[in-house]
Automatic annotation (TrEMBL):
Residues 25-69 are annotated as: Disordered. It comes from Halosimplex pelagicum. Residues 25-37, 48-60 have a biased composition (Low complexity). Keywords: Copper, Electron transport, Membrane, Metal-binding, Transport. This is Copper-binding protein. One of its GO terms (cellular component) is membrane.
Amino acid sequence: MTSFDPSRRQVLRVTGAALAGGAVAGCSAAPGESSDAGGDGGDGGSDGESSGSDGTATSSGDGGSSGEWTQASTVEMTDQLAYAPKRIEVSAGTTVTFENVGNVGHTVTAYEEEIPDGATYFASGDFESQQAASDAYSSEQAGNVPAGESYEHTFETTGTYEYYCIPHELNGMVGYVKVV
């Protein structure tokens, strides 16, 4: 099984920022959110933690559990390349709906190494692994959730889950679900 480790994510973010000259990464994050594309170590820095412009902490070591959690079972995917809310908390057994409320297609793709042990892997397109989701999106945009459509997943296992949008990961489109 191939995984997408944090050091590779950081390399991709830094490379993407360098290719875009930093301009796209700096202006495409949602208002009040940091894209972390500038390579400030948000996913692999020495302390493993950085702050968004709103002061909300994000962390690679605790699945993003630093910061505010919103009790919600619906997450919007927006044209600002963000999941809103970014961090949700639900009870075990809750079905979460990821709604695309904008005009740009998005994915919901779990970081395989950032879900609780024993939890069911999830990705729009119902792929069995992160690599399968990534490969399918790259070849035919499989797993894309078009404007006005949604994807649902029921979270049974307690713990913190981290997920991202394949085409917009470099823009900081990452979200978290804490199941209690």
